[in-house]
């Protein structure tokens, strides 16, 4: 899922020409016209982001940001022979990509908090390649966890939530989350390739 085209933009309730009339009105300063555009396309954008992110809370935040950015840029958009909904989805897609990159960075930067990896025995380019390979291997292993374990690890280390916050999100008590996290980390240690484990080859 790397392109907005993978999730077709649903047809709006009214024809595209009517939507562009609202765009022109919004460009002239008619905020009510922009409000109608929001009402018409908010659900399209939200469903697209949920499809890409899989999290309704994040989708709500990014949908809001999509229309904030759209309002700022409404004066720059010009008719290109397609429905204005495609423009809104393009903004949403860019926000999703930024969010994914940011989330991946946060996960990679907290790798050592999830599972201890063998420290490189050399310095320089070789060690950098090894560290990158370790992170990639870890990300692949996270995808192999069962749904509960994956959600726990994602919330704790990707979204940087506390145990209490994770418990609330998962509708569990804190003790259950700690136990689930422990099992998930233990499972990750088992899944990691031998060469990347703390007791790997020396």
Which structural category fits the helices and strands? mainly alpha
Largest sheet properties: none
Tell me the β content.
under 5%
Shape descriptor reads elongated
Which segments are poorly predicted (pLDDT under 50) over 5 or more consecutive residues? 1-15, 115-123, 197-202
Distance between the termini: 39 Å
Radius of gyration: 22 Å
The top-level CATH class of the largest domain is Mainly Alpha
What order do the SSEs take from the amino end to the carboxyl end, as H and E?
A: HHHHHHHHH
CATH topology name of the largest domain, in short, is Rna Polymerase Sigma Factor, Chain: A
Percent of residues in helices comes to: 55-70%
SS summary, helix count: 9
CATH architecture of the largest domain: Orthogonal Bundle
**What is the residue-averaged pLDDT?**
76
Considering the protein shown, what is the CATH homologous superfamily of the largest domain? RNA polymerase sigma factor, region 2, helix turn helix motif
**Strand elements, count:** 0
How many distinct domains?
2
In words, what does this structure look like?
The protein has 202 residues and is mainly alpha-helical. The chain folds into 2 domains: 4-103, Orthogonal Bundle (Rna Polymerase Sigma Factor, Chain: A); 110-196, Orthogonal Bundle (Arc Repressor Mutant, subunit A), CATH 1.10.10. Helix content is 69%, strand content 0%. The protein is built from 9 helices and no strands. The protein has helices at 16-27, 31-53, 56-73, 85-109, 111-114, 125-143, 147-158, 163-170, 174-191. The longest helix has 25 residues, at 85-109. It starts with 15 loop residues before the first helix and ends in an 11-residue tail after the last helix.
């Amino acid at each position: 899922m790397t392109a907005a085209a993978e999730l077709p933009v649903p047809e709006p309730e009214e024809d595209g020409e009517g939507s562009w009339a609202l765009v022109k009105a919004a460009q002239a300063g008619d905020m009510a016209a922009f409000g109608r555009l929001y009402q018409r396309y908010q659900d399209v954008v939200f469903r697209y982001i949920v499809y890409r992110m899989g999290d309704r809370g994040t989708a709500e935040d990014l949908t809001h940001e999509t229309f904030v950015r759209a309002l700022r840029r409404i004066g720059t958009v010009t008719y290109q022979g397609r429905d204005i909904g495609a423009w809104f989805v393009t903004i949403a897609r860019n926000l999703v990509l930024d969010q994914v990159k940011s989330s991946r960075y946060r996960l990679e930067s907290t790798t050592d908090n999830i599972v201890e990896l063998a420290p490189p025995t050399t310095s320089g380019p070789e060690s950098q390649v090894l560290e990158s390979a370790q992170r990639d291997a870890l990300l692949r292993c996270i995808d192999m966890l069962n749904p509960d374990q994956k959600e726990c690890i994602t919330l704790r280390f990707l979204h940087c939530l506390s145990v209490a916050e994770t418990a609330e999100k998962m509708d569990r008590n804190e003790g259950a989350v700690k136990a689930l996290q422990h099992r998930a980390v233990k499972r990750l240690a088992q899944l990691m390739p031998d060469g990347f484990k703390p007791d790997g080859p020396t």
